[in-house]
Amino acid sequence: MKVYRQFIAASYLMLSAHWSSAEVTHPVNFNLSQAASFLSHEVDLVNLLQSPPDFSYDFELGINATHLRGAPVPYEPAAPAWRFAQIQNPNGVQVLQDPTTGNHYVKTFWEKGTGLDYDDNTQRKIQIYGEFGAHARQEEVWYFESFFPTEGFAYDNFPEIIVQLHGRPDACEYDRDPPLAIEVKQDDIIITWRHDERVCTPAGFSDWNERVRNLGPLPKDQLVSWIIHAAWDPNGNGALTIIVNNKVLFMEDNLFIGFEDDVSPYIGWGIYKFPLNSNHQSRTAYYDNFKQWIIK
Fold first, then answer.
1. Signal peptide: which range, if any (predicted)?
2. Which of 95, 180, 185, 214 is 20–30 Å from 160 (CA)?
């Protein structure tokens, strides 16, 4: 437990002190931090999380993006760049500093019915996107932290995507849906995964082979740690593991997941919600400490 706690200790102290220190309200089926090892698709996640990541972003230098669509955001040129940002309103993304620790994290803010000066896609999103993977069969592990306040992220009948691993269409394709999306609907975590083994997916068929699973309640008013282990393979040799606050919510091998694309998916995070689809005027979520390990 000590080694794994060192992995998240600094950000946990910062976020829990500034936001909340509420206890997890559901039992942990498998405590990753207490295990000597834990295999997910033959990858020992306990040892992996102790190793240096291939990508790390903690917002201590601010936030940056190579390409920006939508509202202007005060990006910090000194910070490492994310690939792309789609911002719905001028207050959509803010880097905040904890007054006690001095550490930084990101606030994302979505407003109902705003952003109408932007294109139809941008007006829905407060999202930041990472780089493409090297190849369609890439296997990777992502770690990040989030905080969802009850007051700013109240129960909503309409869904919102908080994280997605999004595909890029090849030259022969019109569009591409994310092979993995994590959304929140009615306070539950919902995952959707897709696949297509064809080299060229016909227009409108990007979500043809789709499966959905409800993973249970979203923890609120507390720091939430996420681990996503994805092995992309549209022919049935893929795998997906999702661990939230040390609880294994989903783990399957021999999975059809991903597309026959030139590159593997890229991560997107924030709030993705249609302009008028909410019972509330606004939504707020916080993120920090993104890390990626590339297995192959």
1. 1-22
2. 95
CATH number of 2-294: 2.60.120.200
Q: Tell me which long-range contacts 51-56 makes (C-beta under 8 A, separation of at least 24).
A: 51/293, 53/143, 53/291, 53/292, 53/293, 54/292, 54/293, 54/294, 55/130, 55/290, 55/291, 55/292, 56/289, 56/290, 56/291, 56/292
| Run of H or E including 55 | strand 55-57
- Secondary structure of residue 207 in the 3-state scheme: coil
Instruction: Report the pLDDT value the prediction gives residue 180, as an integer from 0 to 100.
Output: 97
CB 121 within 8 A of CB 105: no
Closest C-alpha among 96, 92, 56, 25 to residue 247: 25
CA 45 to CA 35: how far, in whole Å? 10
Residue 219 three-state SS: coil
pTM confidence score? 0.87
Name, in order, each residue with C-beta under 8 angstroms of 42's C-beta and a sequence gap of 6 or more.
Answer: none
pLDDT bin (cut points 50, 70, 90) of residue 33 is low
DSSP annotation of 178 reads -
Cα-Cα-Cα-Cα torsion 134, 139, 145, 150, nearest 10 degrees, comes to 100
Task: Give percent helix, percent strand, percent coil of the chain, each to the nearest 5.
Answer: 10, 45, 45
Report yes or no: 138 and 91 within 8 Å, Cβ to Cβ.
Answer: no
For residues 21 and 242, the answer to whether their CB atoms sit within 8 Å is no
Domain range summary for the chain, segments of one domain joined by +: 2-294
Is the predicted pLDDT of residue 285 greater than 70, yes or no?
yes
